């Protein structure tokens, strides 16, 4: 299944709402979308994972790469609405210790305001 990505800009933050599988077959779509935003000067992302049914190591790798780039430019990546399977994957890989994971977009906006002044 291909990942579907809806994009919205909230202030200087890019909200990406994903649906489908985030795996080695679909991760390039997310990478292209994020690279385009980085190129446009956007460095903070809220990634809504509530529609993601499955994620593998390629999906995790893209999220980590995005966080590294965002952080190096004073931005952040906040994950929203991950299902139990994705939360378990983040926990098993200990990535839950580097990503801020929240339940709502409003919580993500507040988290960004705290860390970057954006939101």
Write the topology of this structure.
Elements (H helix, E strand, L loop, with lengths): L3 E7 L2 E10 L4 H13 L4 E12 L1 H16 L4 E4 L3 H9 L7 E3 L2 H12 L3
Helix pairs in contact: 1-2
Summarize the structure in words.
Helices cover 42% and strands 30% of the residues. The model has no long low-confidence stretch (mean pLDDT 94). Strands 1-2-3-4-5 form a five-stranded mixed sheet, with helices on both faces. β4, α3 and β5 (100-102) form a beta-alpha-beta unit. The chain has a single domain, classed as Transcription Regulator spoIIAA (2-Layer Sandwich), CATH 3.30.750. It is globular. With 119 residues, it is α/β, with parallel strands linked by helices.
* CATH level 1 class label: Alpha Beta
Query: How much of the residues is beta strand, in percent?
Result: 25-35%
What percent of the residues sit in helical stretches (DSSP H or I)? 40-55%
> N-to-C terminal Cα separation, in Å?
31 Å
Whole-angstrom Rg:
13 Å
In CATH, the architecture is 2-Layer Sandwich
CATH-defined topology: Transcription Regulator spoIIAA
What composes the largest sheet? 5 strands, mixed
Mean pLDDT: 94
SSE class: alpha/beta
For this structure, the quaternary state is single chain
Shape: globular
Number of helices: 4
Number of E-type strands: 5
**Unreliable segments (pLDDT under 50, ≥5 consecutive)?**
none
**CATH homology-level superfamily:** STAS domain
Task: Tell me the series of helices and strands, N- to C-terminal.
Answer: EEHEHEHEH
Strands in their spatial order, largest beta sheet: 1-2-3-4-5
Taken together, the total number of domains comes to: 1
């Amino acid at each position: 299944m291909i990942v579907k990505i809806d994009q919205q800009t909230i202030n200087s933050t890019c909200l990406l709402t994903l649906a489908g599988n985030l795996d080695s077959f679909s991760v390039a779509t997310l990478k292209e979308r994020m690279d385009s935003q980085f190129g446009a000067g956007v460095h903070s992302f809220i990634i809504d994972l509530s529609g993601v049914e499955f994620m593998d190591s390629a999906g995790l790798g893209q999220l980590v790469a995005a966080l590294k780039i965002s952080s190096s430019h004073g931005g952040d990546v906040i994950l929203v609405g991950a299902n139990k399977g994705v939360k378990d994957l983040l926990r098993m890989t200990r990535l839950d210790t580097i990503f801020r994971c929240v339940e709502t977009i409003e919580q993500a906006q507040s988290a960004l305001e705290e860390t970057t002044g954006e939101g």
